[in-house]
Amino acid sequence: MTADTIWFNARIRTMDPNRPLASAMAVSGGKILALGGDTDVLNLAGPGTETIDMGGKSILPGLVESHTHALWGACQELYEVNVNYGASYGELMAAVRSQLAQTAPGTMLTGGPWRHDMRAEMGDNPRATLDAVSADVPIALADVTKHLLWCNSPALALAGLHDDVEDIEGGVIERDPATGAPNGILAETAAAPVRKLFTHSPAQLADATRLFVERFNQLGFTAFKEPMAIEADLQAYQAADQRGDLSLHMAAHIVRQSPLVPEMIPYEEMERWRQTYASPNVRTDYAKLFLDGVATGFTASFTEPYQPDTGYDVANHDADAILLLTPEEIAREITELDRRGFTVKMHAVGDNAIRRGLDGIEAARRANGPSGLQHEIAHAPFVRLEDLHRFSALDAVAEVSPKLWFPNPATAGQLALLGANRVGRCHALRDYLQAGMRVTYASDWPAASPDPNPWTGLAGMISRRNPTGAYSGSLAPEQAITLDQALPLFTINGAQSLRMEDETGSLVAGKWADFIVLDEALETLAPAEIGAIDVRQTVWKGQTVFAR
Fold first, then answer.
1. Where are the beta strands (DSSP E) in 125-275?
2. What pLDDT is stored for residue 504 in this prediction?
3. Residue 12 falls within a domain, yes or no?
């Protein structure tokens, strides 16, 4: 067989332990035909073969993003207030006022983000503060985690959250201590009535899809996982694939339960969506559960209480009471979803939530036997030392996100809420790998990361510093890992989480020709230089989908 294209005189890192390095690669029909030395591979050239001299440039497998709300992020950039994570309170308010001038009557203004350290500037009654910006246009601004909303009175009224509204199970409605009325801050399920008002047309979603696909290909991604899909998302992804706009492999985790969705999605509905919206490049055998929330809302479930000077009721701390599902419900849900063939991704931030997620996987293994499904703990920032070994024992995956493992805009708030000892254990990657945990990389853009750039994520892993230089110091430098240890998280491990390790994630004969071209080899670059990488070219299924 002759090759369609041969790439030679390259520095190819294959991520294949049987052939870690090569200088040439032949591609035929979108798949890798052969790898090896220049002479041997060039022998596969025929009269119609294109031969490309790479001039010593570096080739790597295409990257896999294991947790990114792609449509959400693109819609945010196109249609919402969107300031950077380090923006000041004044800059956020200026952006809101600017967007107000462009907001059509009857339209809700959404966007953000705001941070925990802005609460003093938001005032004792954040609702009234936002009413002063507009008492007519509904405004709902998300925090950096996307688990909290800051709403004005029109937004609350539009969602049916009146002054006498009762508490919502699984959520928090902050209230004015004088009146008992909502003060505009909603967390977890309490924010769902407002969130369901956030809608976009099919045409807007098509534009958003084209935006994120272009962006992801430019960054070097050839595959990703959508962690929280409802029917509208699935429709948009399938439509993009049918149009030929989706130059990415992807998997969509269908929501079973979420604080952002008002009700549990019935199993039968999930089954229908799985069948209806699967397409050649969209995998749908995946599900999503939320076990807890986020630290900034006191909704992340930790075995130990939050810091006493935060106003948290330390004396009455009950880790399981903070969970969004009881331990028994977690076990039942994972067991049933495992039985139905769904790979489950569980949002779990606090160490108790992570432990209960592992307990649930263990219950599924006892009930169903080894299903072969590698269920995932999403985020997995605070794993207790005694739980590290359970990941490999249960064939579970730690999906580490967001990519803020170094000093960043959220660090000060984390320190205030959790204390230095716990924050120092955040994403203890060295310990994770030493314990034999299977780990994947993810940004969680836009829910908790300012952008989907994987290179700053990689730089942060190997340096434990902020690769942009915006924040000084280091976060737990002893937990830094090497480049060789980190690259599998972005490639073959991510492909395994897609159940596509036989098709992508490494450069091996018979797999898709999914790869990227860099000007220089990664091992020659300092972390700051890795964080600033510009991908030269991205190839997906043998076709160039981005070139600089």
1. 139-143, 148-151, 171-175, 182-188, 221-229, 249-255
2. 98
3. yes
504 part of a folded domain: no
Q: Last residue of a domain, which of 179, 195, 211?
A: 195
* pLDDT in the model for residue 90: 96
Is 188 in the same domain as 241?
Answer: no
What pLDDT, on a 0 to 100 scale, did the predictor assign at position 262?
66
Q: State residue 84's pLDDT score.
A: 86
How far apart (Å, rounded) are the C-alpha atoms in residues 418 and 381?
13
Instruction: Look at the block and give the residue holding tokens 């001039």.
Output: 55
Segments of the chain scoring below 70 in pLDDT: 262
Instruction: Give the count of alpha carbons within 13 A of 89, CB side only.
Output: 12
d(CA 333, CA 341): 12
Domain hosting 475: range is 202-497
Count of CB atoms situated within 10 Å of the CB of 105 = 6
Cα–Cα distance between 183 and 155 in angstroms, integer?
A: 12
What does pLDDT average to over the chain?
95
Residues 366 and 318 reside in one and the same domain? yes
Task: Report the 10 Å Cβ neighbour count for 163.
Answer: 13
Residues 180 and 308 in one domain: no
pLDDT of residue 470: 85
User: Does residue 113 have a cis bond before it (omega within 30 degrees)?
Assistant: yes
In a domain? residue 505: no
**Which pLDDT score, from 0 to 100, does residue 277 have?**
98
For the chain, the C-alpha Rg in angstroms (whole number) is 24
**pLDDT for the residue numbered 406:** 84
3-state helix, strand, coil in the chain (%, to 5): 35, 20, 40
Sole residue written with tokens 């962690």: 227
| Cβ atoms of residues 26 and 487 within 8 Å | no
Same domain, 471 and 392: yes
| Strand, coil or helix: 329 | helix
CB atoms within 10 A of CB 117: 14
Residue reference for tokens 């409802």 = 230
CA angle 206, 209, 214 (to 5 degrees): 130
CA distance 59 to 219: 14
**DSSP string for 432-483:** HHHTT-EEEE---TTTT-S---HHHHHHHHHH-B-TTSSS-SBS-GGG---H
